[in-house]
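forwarding from the other thread:

> can someone predict this with magnesium ion?

sure thing
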Amino acid sequence: MTAAIEIQGLHKSFGPLEVLRGIDFSISPGEVVCVIGPSGSGKSTLLRCANLLEQPTAGRVLVSGVDITDPDVDIDRVRRRIGMVYQQFNLFPHLNVLKNLTVAQRKVLKRGQAEADRVARENLARVGLADKERSFPAQLSGGQQQRVAIARALAMGPELMLFDEPTSALDPELVGDVLRVMRGLADDGMTMMVVTHEMGFARDVADRVVFMDGGVVVEEGAPEEVLGNPRQARTRSFLARVI
Ligand code: ADP
Ligand code: MG
């Protein structure tokens, strides 16, 4: 089976700073992989390289078998297949919720207004916000804004979703709603790569947990192995600090 995404020998430097020092792993269609690790270990850079928001210094990224680091590949077409959700939501503040979900569908996918609206409403319902389409981002809680951001990514019909600490900016009482939506996506078979500090989510939802430190994958495996019985000292000391 072709991997949904395959990362091969990925290196990324910013000037003299080598942030990713040889990353190899792949995610199968329908698999949920949680990436954990200390601040500064390169998790966000890995996600950004995975959809070429950052250009890798070396290595390859294959999305459904297509090498997206090949200069001949139309990166905009590839990026459309990958949804990204950020810690800070990144909604368009001057547009209402419905418009937030339809702009890229119209511009990038060239969908007509009626279809874009229909897909938007379908995905707002999916994240439990069918009644908020006329609201502006500032009128919503952080958790609602993040669910809008998830719905906006879903409206593009991605085959892979990348999440970069989607609940880290939220008040604690709002985290659960967002995690529930993400769990629903996982149950529906979405392929997901989730950078998170939510160890409960990783334990319950991930098929695989990847622990990164210092720009390398130190350990990966089933959640009960990596979180419950880590083999590496670095994993153990990280978990002792966060759990
Ligand atoms: P994490 O998400 O695990 O906290 P990051 O991938 O954000 O780690 O950052 C890893 C390292 O790369 C940090 O030392 C950070 O300062 C550095 N870094 C990230 N992006 C840039 C950039 N655009 N320019 C220079 N250094 C960067
Ligand atoms: Mg980060």
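The chain has a mean pLDDT of 96. thats all i got for now
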